[in-house]
């Protein structure tokens, strides 16, 4: 008994996530003790909680195993619009992987948490690509890219990112070959600095509207925000969940409008907002943006270059095929495509959604005047 | 991951790459080149204030954008024809180099064949871009990247001694910035040679703009955080900008006619003086409103936007030739009708839009006028509002002067001795 208790204490003691100085992050992902390999599975460690999102950022259909850790006795503070306010020592992780079929081929289809619930990832059934760590220091968040080895035994810090040639097979059996690009640590800021002026890194996914959804926890299905609150990780959550904003999912019953705006929010809004890196464009796509021209309706491009793709306006109501947003989503040319980083393939589902949204818009831009 | 010491990598790459012939560059990058790229990206990522990132002589293939966020960093090559970052095989990133750090200096290197922009500096204070070359080596092509040298939302920026070639939008493009000096550069075979857009306070002088579609552009675009005003274009040579417009349809510069020397669109308080402007076949100077830019609809433009070019002062330029073969059919017809089969359009072409809400007793207020004091140079008002009905070269409205703009000062320790 006593020996058993001691063992439990020892294991608990060394399996909690670890902090490192900002200037000296560990070379190996395992040193963080956030996600670990145990019995052929990648699992979250103690107090590390898996989560997923409503509409998510497209990353070449990579599936994502996301976790959040808040130091014991501390809490993130609920925010209605911005990312939840996490205490120093918090760690968010995101592991990018592809499921393998019986023949070992990598699947190319939309990601939700079906692969793991909260049980962990069976390494026989997935190919691990990278794990990104976002760690909250006193000075702010730091982003660190770790790239998995082929044996799937360890991921190593790669400041410069990496390029992985991949071939994925979609449900129709078509192969898609492309170069998966792991961003370098500075490119993390390309998306994770919603205020480009101060350049401070922020998490993107852990906003209330993204995580306000049910999740299949080990103990049963539960709303993630409620679960975090009950686990003592989150404070100030409104009593009435109906007051908490919620983005749509592809498979939800939400309106086309809500789905399209949710898609633009998570895929574009971190740069395309009034203080983001893409404020230079005057095109603002974050959730809550109400001015139709700012949202792209009949808005001429500013510096789109050949990304304009012969279109005159970001959104030409009723005509997705003449809309710059659709053109840039359908391109994989680095000089044209949007988002600029983080994909080498086209998000077919996302493009179909945005095209349907634009095609359903009434009106036109044609009233000339002076 | 362990990396060999950086000097070892650099030494190896330099000796391997200096000897590369052009045909060898097209092949997949060698292991040494890949190691160089990885090491270079790592230097960008881990850069600390005070760092100097050196680019040795040689052609270095780079496959991903180089992204710099740290302040007080210098990137230095051994010369714009010696240290070449070649993005021909680029697979990721919308620009060759992307910078958001303050007090940034880049000098003496070349950025070739980026898939998007050559170098973009987004929101930085104190920037020096000196003796660099951005080039698409295949020459003018719609598929080339948009901008060569592209500072946007910067404060205090000096671009000098640089060369920009074959951008499908602007070779040197300064957007939404404050306090800019662009001098002693060469821009050629771009759609727009040098473009100042939505910028407050810019001096553009001692440059050569030649063989572009339009030589030097001063534009304002709608729906942006700031309007531009206060640009001086002087002592430049703006010669034979007659290259066919190869901008992708839909972009703002796609409406610039080939053969444009200086183009002012929707911008205010612009001074054009002491330039040598020669053989620009549409017109040596074009002054136009946003209504002529091909975008304007009541749905497209925020009410606050001022589409009229106002307070334009043109004086003491040397105009030679030009206007003899305008790019647009209606201008060609107008030239023949008004000036004869062998005639030429006058040196200054104005689309004729004025803000009728501002008229005082039917006159444009003094500070909003287009004033020309340039010897025999004429203004042709093509009467755009009435579909070219009343074309006139009456100079009465333009015989005026405006207060001259102050010179741009780039001071402080960062620009010390400039």
Automatic annotation (TrEMBL), chain A:
Keywords: Signal. It comes from Pseudobowmanella zhangzhouensis. Residues 1-20 form the signal peptide. SUPFAM superfamilies: Multiheme cytochromes (SSF48695). This is SO2930 family diheme c-type cytochrome. It comes from the Bacteria. NCBIfam families: chp_HNE_0200.
UniProtKB/TrEMBL annotation, chain B:
Residues 93-220 form the Right handed beta helix domain. This is Parallel beta-helix domain-containing protein. It comes from Pseudobowmanella zhangzhouensis. InterPro entries: Beta_helix, Para_beta_helix_rpt-2, PbH1, Pectin_lyas_fold, Pectin_lyase_fold/virulence, SO_2930-like_dom. The lineage of its organism: Bacteria, Pseudomonadati, Pseudomonadota, Gammaproteobacteria, Alteromonadales. SMART domains: PbH1. Gene3D superfamilies: Single-stranded right-handed beta-helix, Pectin lyase-like. SUPFAM superfamilies: Pectin lyase-like. Pfam families: Beta_helix.
């Amino acid at each position: 008994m006593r020996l058993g208790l001691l063992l439990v204490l020892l294991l608990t003691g060394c399996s909690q996530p670890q902090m490192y100085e900002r200037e000296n992050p560990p070379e190996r992902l395992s040193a963080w003790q956030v996600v670990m390999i145990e019995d052929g599975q990648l699992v979250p460690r103690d107090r590390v909680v898996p989560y997923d999102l409503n509409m998510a950022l497209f990353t070449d259909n990579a599936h994502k195993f996301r976790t959040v850790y808040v130091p014991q006795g501390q809490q993130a503070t609920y925010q209605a619009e911005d990312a939840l306010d996490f205490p120093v020592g918090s760690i968010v992780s995101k592991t990018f992987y592809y499921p393998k079929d019986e023949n070992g081929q990598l699947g190319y289809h939309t990601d939700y948490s079906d692969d793991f619930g909260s049980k962990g990832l069976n390494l026989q059934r997935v190919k691990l690509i990278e794990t990104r760590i976002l760690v909250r220091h006193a000075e702010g968040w730091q982003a660190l890219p770790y790239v998995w080895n082929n044996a799937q035994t360890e991921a190593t810090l790669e400041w410069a990112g990496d390029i992985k040639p991949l071939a994925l097979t979609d449900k129709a059996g078509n192969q898609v070959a492309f170069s998966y690009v792991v961003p370098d640590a500075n490119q993390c800021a390309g998306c994770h600095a919603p205020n480009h002026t101060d350049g401070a890194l922020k998490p993107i996914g852990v906003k209330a509207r993204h995580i306000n959804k049910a999740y299949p926890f080990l103990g049963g299905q539960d709303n993630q925000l409620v679960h975090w609150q009950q686990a003592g990780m989150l404070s100030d959550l409104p009593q009435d969940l109906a007051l908490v904003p919620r983005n749509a999912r592809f498979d939800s019953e939400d309106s086309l409008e809500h789905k399209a705006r949710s898609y633009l929010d998570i895929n574009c809004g971190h740069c395309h907002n009034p203080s983001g890196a893409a404020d230079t464009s005057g095109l603002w796509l974050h959730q809550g943006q109400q001015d139709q021209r700012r949202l792209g309706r009949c808005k001429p491009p500013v510096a789109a270059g050949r990304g304009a793709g012969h279109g005159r306006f970001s959104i030409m109501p009723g005509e997705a095929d003449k809309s710059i947003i659709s053109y840039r989503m359908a391109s994989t040319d680095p000089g044209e495509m949007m988002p600029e980083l983080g994909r080498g393939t086209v998000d077919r589902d996302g493009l179909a959604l945005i095209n349907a949204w634009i095609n359903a818009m009434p009106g036109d831009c044609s009233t000339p005047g002076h | 991951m362990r990396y060999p010491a950086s000097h070892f990598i650099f030494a190896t790459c330099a000796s391997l790459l200096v000897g590369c012939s052009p045909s060898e560059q097209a092949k997949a990058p060698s292991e040494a080149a890949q190691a160089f790229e990885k090491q270079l990206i790592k230097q960008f990522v881990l850069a600390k204030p005070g760092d100097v990132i050196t680019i040795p002589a040689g052609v270095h293939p780079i496959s991903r954008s180089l992204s710099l966020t740290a302040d007080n960093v210098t990137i230095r090559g051994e010369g714009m024809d010696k240290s070449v970052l070649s993005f021909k095989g680029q697979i990721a990133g919308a620009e060759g180099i992307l910078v958001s750090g303050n007090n940034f200096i880049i000098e003496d290197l070349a950025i070739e064949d980026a898939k998007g922009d050559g170098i973009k500096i987004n929101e930085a204070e104190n920037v020096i871009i000196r003796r660099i070359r951005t080039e698409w080596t295949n020459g003018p092509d719609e598929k080339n990247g948009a901008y060569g040298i592209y500072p946007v939302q910067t404060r205090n920026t000096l671009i000098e001694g640089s060369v920009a070639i074959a951008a499908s939008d602007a070779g040197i493009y300064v957007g939404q910035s404050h306090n800019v000096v662009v001098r002693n550069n060469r821009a050629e075979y771009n759609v727009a040679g040098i473009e100042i857009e939505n910028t407050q306070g810019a001096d553009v002088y001692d440059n050569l703009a030649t063989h572009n579609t339009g030589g030097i552009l001063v534009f304002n675009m709608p729906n942006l955080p700031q309007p531009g005003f206060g640009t001086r274009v002087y002592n430049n040579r703006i010669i034979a900008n007659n290259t066919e417009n190869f901008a992708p349809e839909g972009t703002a510069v796609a409406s610039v006619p080939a053969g444009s020397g200086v183009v002012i669109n929707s911008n205010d308080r612009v001074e054009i003086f002491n330039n040598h402007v020669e053989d620009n076949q549409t017109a040596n100077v074009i002054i136009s409103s946003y209504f002529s830019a091909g975008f304007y609809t009541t749905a497209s433009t925020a009410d606050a936007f001022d589409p009229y070019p106002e307070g334009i002062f043109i004086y003491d330029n040397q105009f030679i030739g030009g206007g003899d073969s305008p790019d647009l059919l209606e201008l060609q017809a107008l030239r023949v009708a008004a000036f004869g089969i062998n005639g030429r359009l006058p040196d200054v072409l104005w689309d004729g839009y004025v803000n009728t809400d501002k008229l005082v007793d039917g006159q444009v207020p003094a500070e909003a006028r287009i004033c020309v004091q340039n010897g025999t140079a004429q203004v042709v008002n093509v009467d755009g509002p009435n579909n070219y009905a009343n074309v006139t070269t009456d100079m009465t409205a333009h015989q005026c002067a405006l207060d001259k703009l102050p010179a741009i000062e780039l001071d402080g320790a960062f620009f010390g001795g400039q």
